[in-house]
Design a protein that fits this description.
single chain, 378 residues, alpha+beta, Four Helix Bundle (Hemerythrin (Met), subunit A), paralog of FGE (formylglycine-generating enzyme), four-stranded mixed β-sheet, three-stranded antiparallel β-sheet, 9 strands, 40% helix, disordered N terminus
Length: 378
């Protein structure tokens, strides 16, 4: 999708920037699927992933809901699609079995929604900017999810596979973080997701964090050394999952560059690897503390943003959490089931993967571009 050639001269700078951001996100989405056939877009590659064409319709429906309907007070463009493209009303397991928009209709729907969003923003501005920014980041996040589907299908473009497989030029070493307090979470001003707030003070003892994520070579050494056979390294739940599904290392471990960060690792595997190396996974507070510490000094954490990094923390709200603008974004996932990931991946847009951004998934999932960075007590 080309950027809009004409923008009203009276458009505010905030509104103009938002239109540019929406256009850039849409261009990124459409470029990703431009060379795929209709069959590839409509096919189900995994029961835990949506058909790519469903993602396209969902992106449009979400944008129409929040910009035209909630921000602009307009009726939904296609109200009959609301349930179909609601992520909770239509779970992933059934998205390939129900009738949804085909590729051409989905693209047409996206274009129509985009035009309505532009009209609303030109007329009303962006308000406090929260809803419009949320829509931009939602589409960018779906771009990463769609890349996960493409990776499962073996359809990732070569240029993107190269980003995944690029080696890390950093030695294995540890960064010692001294004991102390720090402000965790997003500040009150600017955009952040509800689960990143409120900012609060956390006191931590000293700890050490690996300067680089675990490599494919290290993971292969773990696997060949009995990593998937040594019961003492696994949690009870992790061992049961491994035995039931006959799990061994992901195919990408051997296929990738030995010095690239290991990817497609579940939390269960990450936890076992850490135990096998007399280490542990960091808490998410430790992860954020170390990252903000290195931003203030000359210390370096290599490979941040190459793969999502599992933490040992369960996903829950910070003290004083308040759901906004809807509880289904994060609150419904709070509890013991989900583990937090930090840092972003090669497929994450920097607009999304900030230092305070919290990702989460079930401990058995391997579709995420997730790896491991170890921690130790000192």
């Amino acid at each position: 999708m080309a950027a809009r050639a004409v923008k009203p001269t009276a458009l505010s700078p905030d509104a103009a920037r938002m239109l540019d951001a929406l256009d850039a996100a849409r261009e990124r989405t459409l470029t990703l699927v431009a060379e795929l056939s209709d069959e590839q877009l409509e096919r189900v590659y995994s029961p835990i992933m949506s058909p790519l064409v469903w993602d396209l319709g969902h992106i449009a429906a979400y944008e129409d809901l929040w910009i035209a309907h909630r921000h602009g007070a307009l009726a939904l463009l296609r109200p009959e699609l609301a349930t179909l493209y609601d992520a909770f009303e239509t779970p992933r397991a059934i998205r390939g079995e129900i009738e949804s928009l085909g590729p051409a209709d989905a693209r047409e729907y996206m274009a129509a929604v985009s035009a309505r969003s532009a009209d609303v923003i030109c007329e009303r501005g962006v308000g406090d900017g929260v809803l419009c920014e949320m829509v931009v980041r939602h589409e960018l996040q779906h771009g990463e999810t769609m890349r996960q589907t493409l990776a499962i299908a073996g359809l990732l473009p070569a240029r993107e596979r190269a980003l995944l497989d690029a080696p890390l030029d950093a030695p294995e070493a540890w960064l010692r973080i001294p004991a102390g307090a720090f402000a965790m979470g997003a500040p009150a001003d600017g955009f952040a997701y509800d689960n990143e707030r409120p900012r609060h003070t956390v006191e931590l003892p000293a700890f050490a964090l690996a300067r680089r994520p675990v490599s494919n070579a290290s993971w292969l050494h773990f696997s060949e050394g009995g990593g998937y056979e040594r019961r003492e390294w696994w949690s009870r739940e992790g061992w049961a999952w491994k035995e039931e599904h006959d799990i061994t290392h992901h195919a990408s471990v051997e296929a990738g560059d030995p010095e690239a960060p290991v990817c497609h690792v579940s939390w269960f595997e990450a936890d076992a690897f850490a135990r096998a190396n007399d280490a542990r996974l960091p808490t998410e507070a430790e992860w954020e503390r170390a990252t903000t510490w290195t931003q203030q000094r000359q210390d370096e954490l290599a490979g941040v943003g190459r793969v999502w990094e599992w933490t040992c923390s369960h996903f829950d709200g910070y003290p004083g959490f308040a759901a906004y603008p809807y509880r289904e974004y994060s609150q419904v996932f709070f509890g013991e089931d989900y583990r937090v990931l930090r840092g972003g991946s090669w497929a994450s847009d920097p607009r999304v993967a900030t230092v305070t951004f919290r990702n989460w998934d079930l401990p058995l999932r391997r579709q995420i571009f997730a790896g491991v960075r170890l921690a130790k007590d000192v």
